[in-house]
Amino acid sequence: MIIFHSTGVWQCAARESAHIILRNRLLPGFRSLLSPSSTFAIRQGQSTALRSPVSCFNINICHRSVQLGAHQSTTPVCNLHNFVHTELPTGKIMSGTFALTSDEFFDFEVLRLLSSVRYGGADVGEILKTAALLKPGDFESYHDAFKNTALRINKQADAINTDKNPISARDSYFRVSTYYRAAEFFIHGQPNDPRIRPLWDQQMTCFNKAIALLPQPGERLLLKGSDFDIPAIFYPAAQGATTTPKPTIILGNGFDGSQEELLHAFGFAALERGYNVMTYEGPGQPTVRQRQGLGFIHDWERVVSPVVDHLFARPEVDSKRVALFGLSMGGYLSVRAAAFEPRIAATIAVDGVDDVSAAFCHMLPPAAKVLYEAGENDQVNKFVEELFASGKAPTALRWGVEHGIYSFAAESPTDFLNRTKLMTLAGITDKIKRPVLICEASNDRFFEGQPARVKESLGDLGTYVILTDEDAASLHCHVGAFTFANQNVFDRLEDALSS
């Protein structure tokens, strides 16, 4: 690539492209090239004025070396600590839906909360009224709005006579629990934030009150893993006129979700269809991260096998019909576990994930991704720190990095990314001997393209289903369309377990 300058020619050898936006005042070497009122698009062999106060370059990296006139440097050209801003991912994850807030990631999370309305996890008016108080990119506003809603409804729930009005109390406590979880969701930027544990304790207290009032009460469990405990909840299927063992589905969440959320998303749908339901959490997931201080592990069979051990000892469970379900990043966790746990009769990945590291690296700004792949961890960490301090980071990027550091018990952005590298299905799927349902959302921006690769690696054992805009089911995990997603999951699971 040739960069033309009024005083001569600067040359950069070309290999990998990184799109970078540079502010004139922060790049002394290019200062005479730029003016406050114009932007030059530098391409190979040309220069074009674009009339913008910000300057865009296609800067190419080659063997971590760049030549500027008579000066040679072995440092990557993307020396990000000199830059205020890069061409950042927009975080856009919505498609063809009515915006509930102007912040696109907040919008997705609000829609996620609304998805729990179908099975009593929230109420529409409460969510919309709370969402109106959110300020784009302001994590504190999200915390404050949902905590205040939770406190208000918690007070109402506590005033209900549970002996006289158990259904009203149960429904209120379920909603309160959801809103406490929402209040806690965006405050992981400081892993030791003193608000995290009390909010989680409050959501668990309310959830426990609610599941105790179910027709078939849920049972809290603490199972023993190899070197950690596994919190779980068992929900028995309605026995009706028969006490014969029932099929059972184990529901696991992913990067940021809780086992309590899963009851409203897929658990009640399973109970309606005659399944026992077991939810659980492992290292990195909310309760284990908070109470045991443990971050995510890649070998998820260490979590799932003790859950299966417990279920096989229960008389309510048909041991030949135990299925494993994973949501979001749980699509990796569940398939990984199934490869090493032969007692699982069928696995469901909503949606399929074959390379967790690739997904999280993809969320980095292009220039930061180039540096990370070049091993320049210190520069990447400094860039992320300064970007977040500038207030210019998209909500999805800031939250993703902050929660990644928190949930993986990592020390820095690159430490978090490095820990995800073991989370791959490469060389593992050939160990799976039972059917796997792999779902894909056509507009997923998190694990885009990965479900199809999981299907390809599984061959005939994989059933691939793509849900689209036509059924309003195209977003990540089919948020906003859980009824339709449950239809697709359980109709196919019934066929798999019957065969």
UniProtKB/TrEMBL annotation:
Alphabetized InterPro entries for the sequence: AB_hydrolase_1 (IPR000073), AB_hydrolase_fold (IPR029058), FrsA_esterase (IPR050261)
Pfam families (alphabetical): Abhydrolase_6
Boundaries of every AB hydrolase-1 domain copy: 264-449
Organism domain of life: Eukaryota
Family of this protein: Belongs to the AB hydrolase superfamily. FUS2 hydrolase family.
Identification of the protein by name: AB hydrolase-1 domain-containing protein
